[in-house]
Amino acid sequence: MAEPTLQQRVSSNFRQQSRVAYKRREVLRLADAIRDQVEDMGTKLPRTYVDYQDYKCKLLEQMGYDVTDDLIAHWDEQHEELIRLQYTLRRTNKAVYALFENKDKVVKPQLVSMWYTKHRMDEVWLMRKSQLIRSIYREYLQTATVPTGELLIRKYIPCHLVLTLPHDAEGYGGKKFYLKELLSLFHELRRSKEWKSKVYGGEYGAEIKKSNNGNGLHIHIHSMLFLKETSINAFRDTIRRIWERITENPGHAFIHLEQLYTYKRDEKGKWITRPGKKKNEKTGEWEDLYDIRFMEQSDEAIITAKEVRKKHYIGPESNVEDYLQGVMECIKYHFKSDTYKKEDGSFDLDLIKDILNNSKRMRFYSRFGAFYKCKELNFDNQDDESDEAPVEEAEDKLNGSAGRGVKNLVNPWTMEPALDKDYDFAVASPEMLKYRPGSDLLNPNQLLTFGSLEFTRVAKGIDITGIVQAMVLGKLAPILMKNGKHAAYYDWSSLNST
User: Fold this and answer.
1) Cβ-based neighbour number of residue 245 at 10 Å
2) Which residues of 182-216 are buried (b: 16+ CB within 10 A; e: fewer)?
């Protein structure tokens, strides 16, 4: 596969900057919503989480409560995780950029490193986690082989499996939040001899949202797996029977299994489509879908066949790029943040609170089969975990590389690999930066401002490792430039050490 051009790398960086800025604004919007909810209860949250802990009793008194140990325990059980999230989201408010400035003092920044919380409610982290995982799989699958020496992608069929449990407004088995039960049953399914004989390996992610029909929480698993045989229909029937048995729900399997696919565009850049069809639940027949549009100032209706994007299924015969594209789209599905939002775009704080209170140290993403012990796919350095544990319970820990970001810098003015003299490191709050839309024909995703007022430059001599360490430790001020000068008294050597 061709490496991206220098121009493409610059454009990708601009796009990443714009996305980070938007995601950070969404993160702060969630933090504000939490703060507002607490204020509606009759008090204001102090500036830091430490102050909140110190003055918790006083805050509860301001709300009109008779403070007791039982009340504090109940308050913590109900609200502590949500309030702590508010403080956590506000803390990671910086990113490091390389500022490239022309002779007219116009700057074009390139994002080098961003700070995120690694919290599952942090939209910046969800975006970055998805990128990291997809990048690792993209690299791995191009060369991965099976024990026979064949390329993995030429041997096995990639599929997308969706699993859930029968539930109503009261949840499953009397439990409103039943993720642990779902993961345990999924583990039991993976231990069956039928599964082990047919599935080479895979990964999965849990998704939680409210049911559209009012039946409580809809908790389900999305899994990408690689089948050792081509009969997807036979495997689907097999695991449906097993799932019905282990969930004690005969006749209702609650599974979906489909070969991975990708969408393609024609030579004009338009999506390739086909007539839309929907299965009639009563007859079992497939029926055409139609769009109905009424003429203005008339009762006349125009009925046209509804077109949908055509699925191009991928497998051993597919070209590498199509194959990888299908895999990337499937993995991307695991990290959606819109499931925590209402139709009007506001945050569903009750749902978020339920998730936080019921999923402490419960893993939402993991791997299985041949992928579980695979070093190349080891995102979190937890080799001591046992694949036989019914429910994996460890926080996600994925890491990017700021150093690699510096080595890959491209000068956006010259479109040449960047030299050290071409740029200065600078720090900014991503949410304060405004960008042009991606549809802009001349400068897509580039800064709306031309100067560098939004950025604070780092003193010369501090490398990226030192900057990131200072940022995380809350020691940025001494290494930042002030009025063109820096704090010369600061011991920079401690920051530059690894």
Assistant:
1) 14
2) bbebbbbbbebeebeebbbbbbbbbbbbbeeeeeb
Distance CA 456, CA 486 (A): 11
Which carries the bigger pLDDT value, residue 206 or residue 167? 206
Where does 315-428 have alpha helices with state H?
320-332, 349-358, 402-407
Q: How far apart are CA 111 and CA 124, in angstroms?
A: 14
Distances (CA, A) of 217 to 108, 167, 339, 411: 45, 8, 11, 49
pLDDT band for 160, please (50, 70, 90 cuts).
very high
What is the band of 170 on the pLDDT scale with cuts at 50, 70, 90? confident
Exposure on the CB side of residue 369, measured as CA atoms within 13 A: 22
Q: What count of other Cβ atoms lies within 10 Å of the Cβ of residue 356?
A: 18
Note the pLDDT of residue 151.
Answer: 95
Q: How many helices (H) and strands (E) does the chain have?
A: 14, 19
Q: Rounded to whole angstroms, how far apart are CA atoms 470 and 448? A: 29
For residues 457 and 152, give the distance between their C-alpha atoms in angstroms, rounded to a whole number.
47
CA atoms of 221 and 207, how far apart (whole Å): 6
Q: What is the mean pLDDT of the chain?
A: 84
96 touches 116 (CB < 8 A): no
**Would strands 199-210 and 217-227 be described as parallel, antiparallel, or unpaired?**
antiparallel
